[in-house]
Amino acid sequence: MKAIGLLEYLPIEQEGSLFDFEATKPTAKGKDLLIKINAISINPVDVKVRAPKEKKEETPKVLGWDASGVVVEVGEDCELLQVGDEVYYAGAINRSGTYSEYHLVDERIVGKKPKTLSFAEAAAMPLTTITAWEALFERLAINPENSQKNNLQSILIIGGAGGVGSIAIQLAKWAGLEVIATASRPETVNWVKQLGADHVINHHEALKAQLTEKQLHEVDYILCLNNTDQHWEAMGEVIKPQGKVCSIVENEQPLDLNVLKSKSATFVWEFMFTRSLYTTPDMINQHLLLNKVSELLDQRVLKTTLQEKLSPINAATLRKAHATVESGKMIGKLVVEGFETKEG
Length: 344
What we know:
Elements: E1 2-9, E2 19-22, E3 32-42, H1 44-50, E4 53-61, E5 67-74, E6 86-89, E7 102-106, E8 110-112, H2 119-123, H3 126-139, H4 147-150, E9 154-158, H5 163-174, E10 178-182, H6 186-195, E11 199-201, H7 207-213, E12 219-224, H8 228-238, E13 239-247, H9 258-261, E14 266-269, H10 274-277, H11 284-298, E15 306-310, H12 315-326, E16 333-337
Parallel strand pairs: 9-10, 9-12, 10-11, 12-13, 13-14, 15-16
Antiparallel strand pairs: 1-2, 1-4, 3-5, 3-7, 3-16, 5-6, 6-8
């Protein structure tokens, strides 16, 4: 089967940073599904894992997590999905990735693809959706079914125009929250407003002063999707007493938790690979939430965050996609679809 991999961790401008090669088609066993890949999405995690470092691989390492495709084989222990099902999922950080024609994935982290979305539109969603859902409804413990209470509460989403922010805004609005999103360019401001943000402020300027100017002052929840170190002090200033802060961006400097102490505020991390990495007993929750989001997408309550589409799936296209994501100026999501066929 066709695959794209790396042996050395090089700048994306170098041809060897990602290359095409032939790999052995795997076989599904246990709870694994074998998926024929139709489309994949590139995330910041792809870029981070591939980033230049001294390490070298003995055999090609295949990256990639977001994907949509069709189940072509099921392991003997599979119960949730079957051959022929159209699916979407975000994979596992510790397994071979989705930059390949066929891919093995545990069925407990796979959802049924929304019927109304194309494979490309669906591939844009899983990783960011799981991240946003877990951050909002598990880590921050917001009850999406209690919209009457949520209508009285607010959330600040720092980094609203990126992949996670783009779906987090929609999910927070679905749950009934008042949403303040940050964006710094005219095109990103326009994008977050389209997604439903009630207010927009600039994360390059003082957060507290901007909130005060809008008569918002403090917020019940904060979801930080951009530079935890940079925004740490400001988040401590604007979180309400007994409020909750969640971040998905690792810190580079020690974080002073005393910033939150007097407010008895909660701080929690979200890492969407935790369940698959540690094979937690509740792994199936990702299957369930993806199915729920699939329903919401089919009902037009949510919309795909796909903004750019490239083709075909090969090393040259993926190098271009990585460079785009690496620029840090992505709005929404970038998807690469379709392997070239001999018939084509």
